[in-house]
Amino acid sequence: MEDCLFCKIVKGEIPCEKIFENDKVLSFRDINPLAQIHYLVIHKEHSRDLSEMSHNPEQISDIFLAIKKITTGHSLDQLGYRVFTNNGAKAGQSVFHTHFHILSDENLATKWTSNVS
Ligand code: DGP
């Protein structure tokens, strides 16, 4: 999409710190990390949010296969990691190109968990 920030990153028009890339998926460091490790994972084909991406379930599969490669490649299994997406502005989505966050941190269990108020 013409004026989509993450499409511009896919096209190389805006730089990123690349973590992983194949023909369908790109992962790069979040510019505003919430944890020691904070990666974003996007599909190269534009969709607005997970609701829209769900019409193309093979894209969700592409994303999660990439997440498996990234987390294994960066030895995150031992440290533990969290994967999430914000769907819609009311959930905190600020970039409207579907993206999944991967967070990993020694203190992740006490950050943003459902059992911490
Ligand atoms: P969300 O709030 O779920 O839409 O997450 C958007 C994330 O995108 C947020 O954590 C910050 C990150 N971000 C925004 N602009 C850029 C950028 O230009 N480069 C990179 N690497 N990350 C960005």
Itemize the secondary structure elements and their pairings.
Elements: H1 5-10, E1 18-21, E2 25-29, E3 37-43, H2 50-53, H3 57-73, H4 76-79, E4 82-84, E5 99-104
The structure holds 2'-deoxyguanosine-5'-monophosphate.
2'-deoxyguanosine-5'-monophosphate (DGP) binds at residues 5, 14, 16, 28-32, 40, 86, 92-95.
Give your account of this protein's structure.
This protein is an alpha+beta fold. It has a single domain (5-109), classed as HIT-like (HIT family, subunit A), CATH 3.30.428.10. 26% of the residues lie in helices and 21% in strands. It contains 4 helices and 5 strands, in the order αβββαααββ. The protein has helices at residues 5-10, 50-53, 57-73, 76-79, and strands at 18-21, 25-29, 37-43, 82-84, 99-104. The protein has a 5-stranded antiparallel sheet with strand order 1-2-3-5-4, with helices on one face. A hairpin with a 3-residue loop joins strand 1 (18-21) and strand 2 (25-29). The radius of gyration is 14 Å and the shape is globular. 21% of the residues are buried. The model has no long low-confidence stretch (mean pLDDT 94).
What count of helical segments does DSSP give? 4
Radius of gyration in whole Å, from Cα?
14 Å
Tell me the CATH architecture.
Answer: 2-Layer Sandwich
Overall mean pLDDT score?
94
Distance between the termini: 39 Å
Beta-strand percentage? 15-25%
Looking at CATH, which topology would you report?
HIT family, subunit A
Classified in CATH, the superfamily is: HIT-like
What portion of residues is helical?
25-40%
Q: Which sheet architecture does the biggest sheet show? A: 5 strands, antiparallel
Main sheet: strand order: 1-2-3-5-4
- Using DSSP, what is the number of strands? 5
Provide the succession of SSEs.
HEEEHHHEE
Structural class: alpha+beta
The CATH class = Alpha Beta
- What number of domains? 1
Identify the bound ligands. Answer: 2'-deoxyguanosine-5'-monophosphate
Gross geometry: globular
Catalogue the unreliable spans: none
